[in-house]
Amino acid sequence: MRKRHRSPSRCNRKKLRYLLEELEELRAKEAKSILTSARRRASVETLKDKNKKFFVRKKEQLLESQKNVMHVTQTINEKATEASYLVSYCIAQAGEAHTIAENLIKPCVLDITKYMLDEKSAKHLSTVPLSNDIVSRQIHDLASYFKQELFKRLQKTRFALQMDESTDVAGLAILLVIVRYPYESSFEEDMLMCSPLPTNTTGEESFNKINIFFEENNLS
What we know:
Oligomer: single chain
Number of strands: 3
Helix content: 55-70%
Strand order of the largest sheet: 1-2-3
Number of helices: 6
Order of helices and strands: HHHHHEEEH
Mean pLDDT: 78
Largest sheet: 3 strands, antiparallel
C-alpha cells in the first residue's frame, strides 16, 4: 500500500506567498519612513529660510493662545463659584438642609439642561460646586459679609431699634433686635441681633446684653 506524499510544489507556493507578503510589508514601511523623512527635511528647509521675526511672532501667538485658554478657564471657574453662592443663598433663605443642593437641586438642573439644551451645556453646569461642606461654608461667608456690611451702614447713620422677647420651638426665651435705618433713597429693616435669654430676665439684663453687643461691634 502506497503512502501519499504532500506535493512539494504546494508547500513552495505557500512559502513564496508568505515571503512576498513580508516583502510588501517591508516596502510599505520603508516608503512611509522615506515620506516622513522627506516631509521633515522639507519643514526644516522651510524654517531655515525664515528670519528671527518669524519665530518671535510664532512665540507671541503661542503665548497669546495659552493666555486665552487660561482666561476662558478662569472665567468658567468664576461663574461656577458665583452660581454656587447664589444657590447657597437661596437655600439659606428657604431654611432648607444644606444637602439638598447636591442630592436634589444639582441632579434636577443637570437633567433639565440635558433635555432642554444639550449634553455639552449639562457638562459645563456639572462643574458648579454644591457639596454639603461647600454650601455650609458659603452660607457662613454670606452671613459674615452681610453682618459686616450692616455694621458699616449703621456706623455711618442714625438708626432706630425695635426689641422683642420671643420663644423658640423648644420654649427657650430669645431676645430679638430689629434695626431700621435710611440707606440711599429708602429705609431698610434688618435683624441686628438674636440672642438667647435666661429663664428669668429683667429689662436691665436685656439692656446690658444689647449694650455689650454694641460695644463689641463699634456701634453707637
